[in-house]
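Bumping with the actual sequence this time:
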Amino acid sequence: MSTYELIGSRGCGSAIVEMALELANVPYTVTDLPYLKPGPGRDRLLRLNVTGQVPTLVLPGGEVMTESAAMIMHLNDVAPAAGLAPPADSPERARFWHLLMRLIGAVYPTFTYADDPPKWTTAGEPAELLRTRVHGRRAELWQELDRHVGAPHVLGRRFSALDLYVAVMIRWRPGPQWFKSCCPALYAAAQQAAGQPDVGQVLARHFDPPLE
């Protein structure tokens, strides 16, 4: 195998890694599949990634990676000129790690629990209560993060993979208009990232319409 294979689904977090692959300028292919739908595609995905989640990245040597942050840092090692993460000796490096871990460790799991509450609690009123509380907690987390966002990028003058995460995640619930009103710094950073051709073309493949 001479290329990366990204296994993902339209509109999901795999868009983040797809943009990173574009920026890293490495050869890759995308295998799109409805990752929750039973069938040969999901069967293969489960063989590669026991969680059955996307993104799943197959490296040129055949090794499988299953966490987006790990994929981002791997691609940063492969193509540091892409600027996915600040250099280890830069003052922004600690802040990059802090915000990345907040995104994937605190915000990302809210979608796991709020998207399908009956999977985690009793259907009916308990499930709706869980959904409501998780949505509320997510809003709090986003607003807290918004206070740490610079301009024009999340880290300020330095573009990074944080901008890729934000460009995708503000298109998820509660949606772009909520971010425009309640988290203007995150919204502005997402717009700035979408203006980059390599980023914008991937976003256009995954989401319609673009941000206003």
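The tokens above came from a reply further down the thread. The two ends are 40 Å apart (CA to CA).
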